[in-house]
């Protein structure tokens, strides 16, 4: 199977070309089903790759498939090559699997959209780019996919470009990611300069072999981390991701929850030997950026009212957990949380899209409430995603988050404290979202219609009384469940959010040994720099840490329930949190005022000084040539006279100055 790994990106490429050429003829829903089938075929091949590697010994689970020589320039020899190993296959499994589910979901969600075929064209192109990113044998192939997902992100976020907010959000995402891309490019140049190659095998081999100096490794690690910060939406470059919710909900689930934003974490784990030999401050830098981002985004999520914005800031926060894991050397825990996060966050985003669909495009949670009765499947699956992200055992998110906190405590009690506080806030704001959307006070009848309808009591809902139908902005308004094409992916993802934790169960006495650390054993050859916390207090007292984690989740859930369900306290939603600590506003102000002035000053300097110097030299040469040209009259007698004068002057110089007779 490893010899046909090229089939994984080929299928979405075929889907892209097919829809590009015949999309209008295929129309709705056939264009969507073609795109879905292509991604599903990639998933099937990925499953085959997994079982192929699994059947081999640990030393044989690495294969390079070279397609052709891409950049043969002197000593710079770069191949279009794919690296098949446990890390890339792990990424392929959840990228293609979840993408297939999201494609199927989008068939129902995008029903009736005039650009239905174009939407799936972009989705297939995105999956193609993402597979190139994770399969790349070298930094350039990865960078090709890296830029591809960035471009597709722009297309998809601004898909409804007639809305100014969507067009602006797309441009913001594209420009912000270019800042991080600068770091990846410089890291490639430095890698080639130091190692003579940009292949991961050569770069990591040099780090493990001791031929890569600490200074060079530190520079490469810092530059790649800059790229990861931009792509994975960490401070200070996180602000593009919340605005990216302007795109259709399948875009939010595909790009900003399960795949694209995890690319930065993947890149850090891929070069973990370089991180291992880099300077000692690189690890703490990554960990602290992740921890602060996690806490920062969690506070903002507490006060958001848009159902998708809550999940967007939650994504930023959960990505912070992954970088916290990378910074503390817990590379397996980072990948573990990446996988479980893909399950429950894709579920939550698709669930929010189902709510928006059933509420006739309403996204404000203050205009919802008591939707469980009318959307039972959506509500039930959303609740599973909520329990998973809140860290309630035995759901998937509990196991992965607990492992990150374990390594954080072994590295620094301060990092652990931030992680625990963030966990409480996560349970709180997610419970708030669930209560405001599916339980709590019924608000949709009074807000969604021009004429207010009486609120249904719990007894009336239980008795099956239908809400009063009034005519407002949406015509006859009544919440409704989504079609099967949207519900099936929710059910599958809910199952994964429940059972996903089995891939990396901890070494506890009640868990059989043959079920423990499966992901760690699978990734073992890829993470030689994994931190060893055996013998630490945290490792020896796992049950205490588990009890603390569960208690924190319970505190957050109960606190939010008391506030938003029973209204025993007024909600604590500071405007500062709702405004995102005014960070985005400050960035906008800076770019529009001092930033613009600085850019205009740079442009003026370039025009007047740089270009002025070049133009000045050219002008001087032109004027001098013009004066010299006047002596070229074309008269032979004048030229002979000038030659005669020259001969006389030369003779005078030899006789008078040199004294030669």
Give the topology.
Blueprint: H1 7-54, E1 63-73, E2 76-84, H2 86-109, H3 116-135, H4 139-157, H5 164-195, H6 200-209, H7 214-231, H8 240-243, H9 249-258, H10 263-270, H11 272-277, H12 282-301, H13 307-327, H14 331-358, H15 376-390, H16 396-411, H17 413-438, H18 444-448, H19 458-462, E3 471-472, E4 475-476, H20 484-499, H21 518-523, H22 537-540, H23 542-564, H24 575-578, H25 583-592, H26 594-629, H27 636-657
Antiparallel strand pairs: 1-2, 3-4
Helix pairs in contact: 1-2, 1-3, 2-3, 2-9, 2-14, 2-20, 3-4, 4-5, 5-7, 7-10, 9-14, 12-13, 12-17, 13-14, 13-16, 13-17, 14-15, 14-16, 14-20, 15-17, 15-20, 16-17, 16-23, 17-23, 25-26
Number of strands: 4
Estimate the global geometry from the Cα principal axes.
globular
| N-to-C CA distance | 95 Å
Number of helices: 27
In this structure, how is the largest beta sheet organized?
A: 2 strands, antiparallel
Structural class: mainly alpha
Low-confidence stretches: 447-454, 460-465, 468-475
| Physical arrangement of strands within the biggest beta sheet | 1-2
What's the alpha carbon Rg, rounded to whole Å?
Answer: 31 Å
Helix content: 55-70%
**Strand residue percentage:** under 5%
């Amino acid at each position: 199977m490893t010899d046909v790994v090229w089939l994984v990106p080929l299928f979405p490429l075929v889907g892209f070309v097919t829809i590009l050429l015949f999309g209008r003829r295929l129309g709705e829903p056939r264009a969507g089903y073609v795109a879905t089938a292509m991604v599903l075929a990639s998933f099937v091949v990925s499953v085959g790759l997994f079982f192929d590697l699994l059947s081999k010994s640990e030393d044989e689970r690495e294969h390079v498939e070279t397609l052709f020589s891409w950049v043969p320039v002197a000593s710079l020899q770069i191949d279009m090559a794919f690296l098949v190993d446990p890390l890339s296959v792990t990424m392929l499994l959840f990228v293609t699997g979840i993408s297939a589910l999201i494609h199927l979901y989008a068939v129902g969600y995008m029903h009736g959209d005039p650009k239905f075929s174009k939407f799936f064209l972009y989705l297939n192109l995105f999956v193609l780019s993402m597979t190139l990113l994770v399969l790349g044998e070298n930094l350039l192939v990865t960078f090709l996919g890296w830029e591809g997902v960035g471009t597709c992100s722009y297309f998809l976020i601004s898909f409804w470009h007639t809305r100014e907010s969507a067009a602006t959000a797309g441009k913001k995402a594209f420009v912000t990611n270019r800042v991080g891309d600068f770091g990846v490019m410089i890291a490639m140049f430095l890698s080639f300069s130091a190692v003579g190659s940009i292949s991961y095998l050569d770069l990591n081999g040099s780090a493990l072999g001791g031929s890569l100096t600490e200074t060079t490794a530190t520079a490469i690690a810092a530059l790649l981390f800059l790229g990861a910060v931009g792509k994975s939406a960490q401070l200070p470059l996180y602000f593009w991701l919340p605005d990216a919710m302007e795109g259709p909900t399948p875009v939010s689930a595909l790009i900003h929850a399960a795949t694209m934003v995890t690319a930065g974490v993947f890149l850090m784990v891929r070069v973990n030997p370089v991180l291992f030999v880099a300077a000692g401050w690189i690890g703490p830098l990554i960990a602290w950026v992740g921890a602060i981002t996690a806490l920062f985004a969690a506070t903002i999520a507490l006060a958001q009212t848009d159902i998708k914005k809550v999940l967007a800031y939650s994504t930023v926060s959960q990505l912070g957990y992954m970088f916290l894991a990378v910074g503390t050397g817990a590379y397996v825990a980072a990948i573990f949380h990446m996988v479980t996060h893909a399950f429950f966050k894709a579920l939550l985003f698709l669930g929010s899209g189902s709510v928006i669909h059933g509420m006739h495009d309403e996204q404000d949670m203050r205009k919802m409430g008591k939707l469980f009765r009318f959307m039972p499947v959506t509500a039930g699956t959303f609740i599973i995603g909520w329990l998973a992200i809140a860290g309630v055992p035995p759901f998937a998110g509990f196991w992965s988050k607990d492992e990150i906190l374990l390594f954080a405590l072994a590295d620094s009690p301060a990092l652990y404290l931030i992680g625990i506080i963030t966990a409480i806030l996560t349970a709180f704001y997610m419970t708030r979202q669930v209560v405001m959307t599916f339980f709590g006070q019924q608000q949709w009848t009074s807000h969604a219609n021009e004429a207010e309808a009486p609120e249904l009591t719990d007894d009336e809902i239980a008795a099956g009384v239908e809400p009063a139908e009034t005519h407002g902005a949406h015509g006859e308004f009544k919440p409704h469940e989504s079609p099967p094409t949207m519900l099936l992916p929710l059910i599958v993802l809910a199952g994964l959010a429940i059972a996903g934790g089995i891939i990396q169960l901890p070494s506890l006495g009640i868990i059989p040994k043959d079920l423990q650390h499966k992901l760690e054993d699978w990734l073992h050859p890829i993470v030689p720099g994994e931190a060893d916390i055996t013998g630490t207090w945290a490792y020896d007292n796992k049950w205490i840490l588990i009890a603390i984690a569960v208690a924190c989740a319970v505190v957050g859930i109960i606190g939010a329930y008391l506030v938003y369900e029973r209204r025993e306290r007024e909600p604590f939603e500071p405007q500062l949190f709702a405004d995102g600590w005014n960070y985005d506003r400050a960035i906008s102000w800076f770019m529009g005022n001092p930033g613009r002035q600085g850019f205009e000053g740079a442009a003026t300097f370039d025009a007047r000084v740089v270009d002025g110097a070049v133009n000045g030299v050219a002008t001087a040469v032109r004027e001098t040539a013009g004066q010299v040209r006047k002596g070229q009259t074309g008269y032979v007698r004048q030229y002979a006279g000038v030659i005669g004068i020259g001969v006389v002057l030369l003779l005078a110089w030899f006789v008078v100055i040199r004294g030669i007779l």
